[in-house]
Amino acid sequence: MSPSRRSTTRAARALIVSNGCVFESRHNYLVQVSELATATFIGPDNKPTIRGLIIAGAADLKSELHADLLDPRLKVIVVKLLDLAYGGKQGLEQAISNSADVLTGLRYLEEKKLLSELFSRIARDSGGYCLGPAALMRCLEVGAVHTVLVHENLNVNQFASNQEDAEAIAQLAHSTGSSESEAVSVHDFDMLSWLVDNSSKMGVEHLEFICDRTPEGSQFCKGLGGIAGLLRYQVVDPSQFEDLDGSTVDDDDAFL
Question: What is the pTM of this model?
Answer without folding.
Answer: 0.59
